[in-house]
Write a structure and sequence with these properties.
The protein is built from 14 helices and 10 strands. The protein has about 400 residues and is an alpha/beta fold. It has a 6-stranded parallel sheet with strand order 2-1-3-4-5-6, with helices on one face. It starts with 10 loop residues before the first helix and ends with a helix.
């Protein structure tokens, strides 16, 4: 079966929480492709932690999409979509030991089917758009998924090259900051409108307890909020094991989360490290009970925090990722065995997914010069052009 990869270990070792086997990360050359110009991309933490492990990291990105300043977006120049593997090799300090793509919207260079190095991707929100993630995975030799429940859906790869790697925090950023826990309850996340479940629930909680301000938070603000909070409420979208689960425990708050079957019971013990609910009424009762019982709340919060510190740091995850790829460096990405026309169509899809009519048009020009069929590539580029015009 596919790996349940926390740290490059077997599933039995993972459940026991053993530390990763020694792996020489120092000096490994990692070409890291991440989202540019946006506060929420976790690739920024990958870069920091990989450098901390001693890796030589070269970061690349596509041009920033230009979002809202109040959401932490910033202007950042990236490499043009359509940059090739050969062009990257000309400017890099050495041939990479790994090309690592952390979604969303990093740069996927053209010619990845002939890359002379292993490639891997880290994919997140499969519960939101699985078909796109299945197609995106086709570019890479190894696929690492935050969500356990979708591992079996990635059937185009050998089973040994699709892995469950749950999210984890950089514990030098997400940790208890000290001071009083003067907030009873906190929730950080998109509320999806005033009538959404999240918005209604937080209005209810705010009428009873001291809660955090319901707004957009920058990544750098989250540890301070959770460090002030007694109970973090997690309302996952669908069945995802999300960032908030690990961020809350990392910052020493007690976590009450919706019960989902997506691996959280493999990583932590319900009732010891965190508490779950099924209904809104049950959640409200649990919040009331644990706010009254300081000792029980503190015991669960402390146990959850210890478990994260011992077994679930981003360092451990990335050591495991590097060891896993090094142990199976075979070039097995689906794109590597596609004929040229299918490769062209996959890149045409990618540029449409990114809504880049310019990149789609440039791809058509390259394909025409090579004498390959280009008409199937025109429709994706036209759709991108129309969508951009209607925005």
């Amino acid at each position: 079966m596919a790996h349940d990869v926390l740290t490059g270990m077997s599933e039995t070792q993972m459940m026991l929480g053993h530390p990763p086997s020694a792996f020489p990360c120092a000096g490994k050359r990692v070409l890291l492709s991440t989202l540019s110009g946006h506060d929420k991309g976790e690739g920024r933490f990958y870069e920091i932690v990989l450098r901390r492990l001693g890796c030589q990291v070269s970061r690349i990105s596509a041009p920033a999409c230009g979002g809202s300043p109040h959401k932490g977006d910033r202007a950042e120049a990236g490499l043009p979509l359509g940059t090739s593997v050969e062009e990257l090799l000309q400017v890099l300090p050495g041939r990479p030991d790994l090309f690592l793509y952390v979604e969303p919207l990093g740069l996927v260079p053209e010619g990845l089917e002939r890359a002379p190095f292993p490639t891997a991707c880290v994919l997140g929100d499969c519960h939101r758009d699985l078909p796109s993630r299945l197609r995106l995975a086709g570019f890479f030799d190894h696929v690492f998924l935050y969500q356990r429940n979708y591992v079996s859906r990635f059937t185009e790869h050998p089973r040994t090259h699709v892995h469950w790697m749950p999210y984890a925090c950089d514990l030098e950023v997400f940790h208890p900051l000290g001071g009083a826990r003067d907030l009873d309850v906190a929730f950080i996340g998109e509320r999806s409108g005033p009538d959404s479940e999240r918005a209604r629930l937080m209005r209810d909680l705010a009428s009873r307890y001291r809660v955090n301000e319901q707004r957009w938070y920058l990544q750098e603000e989250i540890p301070a909020v959770y460090s002030r909070t007694k109970i973090v409420v997690n309302l996952p979208a669908g069945d995802d094991l999300n960032f908030r689960f690990f961020e809350a425990l990392s910052c020493g708050a007690m976590l009450i989360t919706r019960r989902v079957d997506n691996g959280q019971g493999n990583l932590f013990e319900e009732g010891k490290h965190f508490v779950t609910f099924d209904t809104t009424a049950e959640l409200l009762r649990l919040v009331e009970d644990y706010l009254r019982d300081d000792d029980a709340r503190a015991q669960i919060a402390a146990a959850g925090h210890r478990a994260v510190m011992e077994r679930h740091s981003l360092e451990r995850r990335l050591v495991g990722l590097l060891a896993t790829v090094a142990g199976a460096p075979e070039p097995v990405a689906p794109i590597r065995r596609m004929p040229g026309q299918r490769v062209d169509r996959l890149y045409a899809w990618l540029y449409e997914y990114w809504r880049s009519a310019d990149a789609g048009a440039r791809l058509i020009g390259k394909v025409r010069r090579k004498g390959r069929p280009w008409l199937p590539l025109a429709l994706p580029a036209l759709r991108s052009l129309m969508r951009n015009a209607l925005r």
